[in-house]
Amino acid sequence: MTHILDETDRAILRSLQIDAAQSVDDISAKVHLSRNACWRRIKAMEQSGVITGRVALVDPAKVGAPLTAMVLIRTNAHDAKWMAEFQTTLRSLPEVVGAYRMTGDLDYVLRVRVADVPAYDNFYKRLTSRISVSDISASFVMEEIKDTTAVPL
Amino acid sequence: MTHILDETDRAILRSLQIDAAQSVDDISAKVHLSRNACWRRIKAMEQSGVITGRVALVDPAKVGAPLTAMVLIRTNAHDAKWMAEFQTTLRSLPEVVGAYRMTGDLDYVLRVRVADVPAYDNFYKRLTSRISVSDISASFVMEEIKDTTAVPL
DNA sequence: GGTGAAAGACATCCCAC
DNA sequence: GTGGGATGTCTTTCACC
Fold first, then answer.
1. pLDDT in tens, chain B (153 residues)
2. Using CA atoms, how far apart are residues A72 and A65, in angstroms rounded to an integer?
3. Based on C-alpha coordinates, what's the Rg of chain B?
4. What is the domain partition of chain A in residue ranges?
5. Is there contact between A126 and strand C, defined as CB under 7 Å from any strand atom?
6. Which CATH topology does A60-140 take?
7. What pTM does this model have?
8. Any idea which architecture B7-47 has in CATH?
9. Angle in degrees, CA B18, B22, B24, rounded to 5
10. How many CB pairs under 8 A join A and B?
11. Chain D nucleotides near the protein (CB, 7 A)
């Protein structure tokens, strides 16, 4: 099922990860391929799931969510029921843009986008009222040095 | 400069954050607007920087970077020179997909994408050879419960 | 804000190699 | 697998209500 990618495929992906609005003509010129061969490779990678989609990126600061919090969570409930509830809760909260179950002494890390600190507090209350955690702490992002959707290739 | 967004603009953004490949016709139907008015709004939001770009999303597991590490860094060097070097280093390392300066007792958090644990170790060595940090610890993502580029609207 | 129309650019598919 | 050419769809810009 997994497509084997050659250097040309990777070049196409690198280009599309930076800008998905460019035409197939432009990409084919960059990777030294005909419009057609290039188009077929892109379609194949969409089909095989290498390319999962194309999305528009929105400036969080300009739509009222300039603050990002990293939330570190420890829990003592590790049963399946608790985990299912926890996951459902996280998926239903739009402020949560990332949620990861971790190795080590951290159990979960969340990335949360909110308007300001009071909005985070409001989110915090909604989260903790729906699920029980033994330890939760938040750090706020002061500066985004790097934040990219581009996977290293 | 900041565009004031009404509910229709937000509906357009919500749709484009999920799928940027759909035609203006489809979007205009969803938000109950003419093709033309819809197109003008999208262009205006691109112009004003609300929409920062359109990118293709690539499945990390299918291109050889299935492992994500969260790296927590503490430092005792807070001078401008060190910070500039640190930032340049992070930006030049493609494995680093996110780098954030934080509040609280964490100084920096990195999101790093690599092939496996040995690849992380290799990255770790390259990083620490180029910049000095007082404390660095990594946790690996076992499960991605949620990971979205969509800003809450 | 809406309509319609017209230009060109573009994606898409079929063919031959 | 590659490239060429035909076709229809979409974007983009116009003038106008």
1. 567 899 999 999 999 999 999 999 999 999 999 999 999 999 999 999 999 999 999 999 999 999 999 999 999 877 899 999 999 999 999 999 999 999 988 899 999 999 999 999 999 999 999 998 899 999 999 999 999 999 999
2. 20
3. 20
4. 7-47, 60-140
5. no
6. Alpha-Beta Plaits (3.30.70)
7. 0.93
8. Orthogonal Bundle (1.10)
9. 115
10. 225
11. 1-5, 9-15
